[in-house]
Design goal:
By secondary structure, the protein is α+β, with helices and mostly antiparallel strands. The protein has one domain: Trna Endonuclease, Chain: A, domain 1, CATH 3.40.1350.10. The chain contains 5 helices and 9 strands. The chain has a 7-stranded mixed beta sheet with strand order 1-4-5-6-7-8-9, with helices on both faces. A two-stranded antiparallel ribbon has the order 2-3.
C-alpha cells in the first residue's frame, strides 16, 4: 500500500466522522486532526501518533485507521485501548473514546475485545461502501452492483429500455 493510499483513507475517515458528528450533535467539532503529525500526549508522558482525532467541547475521539488487505489483529485493538486509557488519564475536560476503522470484516476475537474495552468498530471500504457509527446513529453506504444478465433475467426488458 502506498503512502498516498493510507493518507487518503485517513482523510476519508475524518470526513465521514466529522459529517456524522455534525449531523448527530448539530455542532462542528472544535478540532479535527489526522496524519503523521497528529499527536496527543498521554499521562505516561508518551506522545501518541493518532491517525484521526476529533475533539468536541466534551469528547475526544481517537480513531485508528487500518487500510490493510489483511484482517485487523487483536494486538491493533489492544494498542488502541492502551492509547485511549493513557490519554484519558491526562484529560480533565474530555471523555476519550476509541474507534478502529478498516476495510476488512472483524474477527470474533477483535469484536469481543472491542466490546470489553468499549471501542467502536467501523468498516469503511470506500467512499461508496461503509458502515460508520456514532452514538445511536449508523450511516451506511452500499455499492449495489447488478450484472446485465441479472437485470435481463429478473424482468424481460428490451435493450432500448435498459439504456
Amino acid at each position: 500500500m502506498s503512502s498516498k493510499e493510507w493518507k487518503e483513507y485517513e482523510a476519508l475517515i475524518a470526513r465521514f466522522l466529522t459529517s456524522l458528528f455534525e449531523q448527530v450533535d448539530g455542532l462542528h467539532p472544535d478540532s479535527v486532526g489526522h496524519g503523521r503529525k497528529n499527536h496527543i500526549q498521554g499521562a505516561s508522558g508518551y506522545d501518541h501518533q493518532i491517525d484521526v482525532s476529533i475533539q468536541t467541547t466534551s469528547e475526544l475521539h481517537l480513531i485508528e485507521c487500518k487500510h490493510w488487505t489483511k484482517n485487523v489483529s487483536p494486538d491493533a485493538l489492544l494498542s488502541l485501548a492502551a492509547r485511549v486509557h493513557d490519554i484519558q488519564a491526562l484529560s480533565q475536560t474530555h471523555v476519550v473514546t476509541g474507534a478502529l476503522a478498516t476495510r476488512r470484516p472483524y474477527s470474533s476475537g477483535v469484536q469481543a475485545l472491542a466490546k470489553f474495552f468499549n471501542v467502536t468498530l467501523q468498516v469503511v471500504r470506500s467512499p461508496q461502501e461503509f458502515i460508520v457509527r456514532y452514538k445511536d446513529h449508523i450511516h451506511l453506504g452500499v455499492l449495489d452492483l447488478i450484472s446485465l444478465g441479472e437485470k435481463l433475467g429478473a424482468d424481460p426488458l428490451s435493450r432500448e429500455q435498459l439504456f
